[in-house]
Design a protein that fits this description.
Elements (H helix, E strand, L loop, with lengths): L4 H10 L9 E2 L5 E2 L8 E2 L2 H15 L4 H4 L5 H13 L6 E3 L3 H14 L6 E5 L4 H14 L2 E5 L4 H4 L4 E7 L11 H10 L3 E5 L18 E4 L14 E4 L1 H4 L38 H10 L8 H22 L6 E2 L11 E5 L3 H10 L2 E2 L1 E3 L3 E5 L7 H17 L15
Parallel strand pairs: 2-13, 5-6, 5-7, 7-8, 8-9
Antiparallel strand pairs: 1-3, 4-10, 9-10, 11-12, 12-15, 14-15
Bound molecules: pyridoxal-5'-phosphate.
Pyridoxal-5'-phosphate binds next to α5 and α6.
Length: 410
């Protein structure tokens, strides 16, 4: 029996997370399947940002560093985020970007394993991560060795100082078993640095129970913190005392306002900071996290998995005959929260869909990527999106939109 829209409608009516969609301001007539690139706008953000700009900055001026606790914002927002990561509030802070935080963590981890000669990293990880790996290896005189994510556990050895990989791959959505891979890395005496860009706010995470050492994650994807929202950084409590990151700016100093000439590391996770935090972005992110209030992450992950299962079943049923191939695991237990489909004319198909209000993205050479953020995507949205794609493929409307130059649609 083909899947029909009424079944999807029934799933929406039974959805225990349906309340969360009202927390977002979504444009009429748009099916937004790109929350894995830039999350949608949560309703409370604009008012909170306006308050920060108009009252805290405009009226209270510099006093707001204390009166509005701007100074404490990175740690305060990190503590609020910690529940979604399965971490302690004292282990998370909000600062800088993923790439910058990865640099800090890799150097800090290598410093904790002196004498070891290599960084083991995921081949096919997001390019920025591996550009940073190469640079850190050059800086510290180490070797960077790359293997596919599924081979990291077997490849780690006595020479490995640190192994780094994405929990969910940005292209395929393949998800690693964080506990098992971390245990294998530890068995070789190395440390693990995880990239959670496609995990935080999207899948069930338990950083503490999985024994993780260090992690970085993204504020502007599934956490809906806004364009360029600062990243988050996790350092396991047992490592905080020895955590020696290389960007020793004054915000990571134990007492920045004494302006001492010598660096003295701040206690706890504040040592992960470098510079003056971007307050407007931080308060936007803080307000955005309210969208997760009363949301059980296990329930969110289950809905994400069901949405992707539906997407894949519909793609099999309605798109495969046009040469669309699945590039994402079928097994939901090893899959993150997006579905990647390959088609030789993927660029044009994604452009044609965007023209019809179905927003996904494209990753060269041929991957169409559709993120199904469980807080605001409905089962009927998935049905309608696949129906639109079937129509685009059947009528070949992508022909007018084939690429004239290489590039991604984002
Ligand atoms: C998996 C992954 N890692 C790293 C990055 C880079 O993030 P940033 O621009 O914050 O350095 C991205 C960006 O999309 C990503 O998807």
């Amino acid at each position: 029996m083909p899947i029909n829209r009424r079944d999807c409608d029934a799933q929406d009516r039974d959805d225990p997370l349906a309340f969360a969609r009202d927390r977002f301001s979504l444009p009429e007539g748009v099916i937004y399947l790109d929350g894995n690139s830039l999350g949608a706008l949560p309703r409370g953000v604009a008012a909170r940002v306006a308050e920060t700009v108009e009252r805290e900055w405009g009226r209270d001026l510099i006093a707001s560093w204390n009166t509005a606790d701007w100074y404490g914002a990175p740690g305060r927002v990190g503590a609020k985020l910690a529940r979604l990561l399965g971490a302690r509030p004292s282990e998370v802070t909000i600062t800088d970007s993923i790439s910058v935080n990865l640099f800090k963590l890799l150097v800090a981890a290598c410093r904790m394993r002196p004498g070891r000669t290599e960084i083991l990293a995921e081949a096919g990880n997001f390019p920025s991560d591996n550009h940073i790996v190469d640079s850190v290896a050059r800086l510290l005189g180490l070797t960077a060795r790359y293997v596919p994510a599924s081979e990291i556990a077997g490849a780690v050895g006595p020479q490995t100082a640190v192994a780094t990989l994405s929990h969910v791959n940005y292209r395929s959505a393949l998800m690693q078993d964080m506990g098992a891979v971390t245990a294998a890395i530890h068995a070789a005496g190395a440390l693990a640095v995880w990239d959670l860009a496609h995990s935080s706010g999207a899948v069930l995470l338990d950083l503490d129970r999985s024994g993780s050492d260090f992690a970085v994650g993204c504020g502007y994807k599934y956490l809906n913190g806004g364009p360029g929202a600062p990243s988050h950084i996790f350092v396991a409590e047992r490592h905080l005392a020895h955590f020696d990151q290389p960007l020793t700016g004054w915000f990571g100093h134990a007492d920045p306002f004494r302006f001492e000439p010598d660096f003295a590391k701040a206690p706890g996770i504040r040592a992960a900071l470098c510079s003056t935090p971007p307050i407007v972005s931080l308060v936007a992110f803080e307000a955005a996290l309210d969208a997760f209030d009363d949301v059980e992450m296990a329930e969110l992950a289950a809905k994400g998995r069901a949405l992707c299962d539906l997407f894949i079943a519909l793609a099999d049923e309605r798109l495969a005959r046009f040469g669309v191939a699945l590039a994402t695991p079928r097994d939901g237990s090893v899959r993150g929260n997006h579905v990647s489909l390959r088609h030789p004319n993927g660029y044009g198909v994604v452009r044609a869909l965007i023209g019809r209000g179905v927003i996904g993205d494209f990753r060269a050479p041929d991957a169409m990527r559709f993120g199904v953020a469980p807080l605001y995507i409905r089962f009927t949205d998935v049905f309608d999106a696949v129906a639109a794609m079937e129509d685009v493929l059947a009528r070949e409307t992508w022909r007018d939109l084939a690429p004239t130059e290489a590039g991604a649609v984002t």
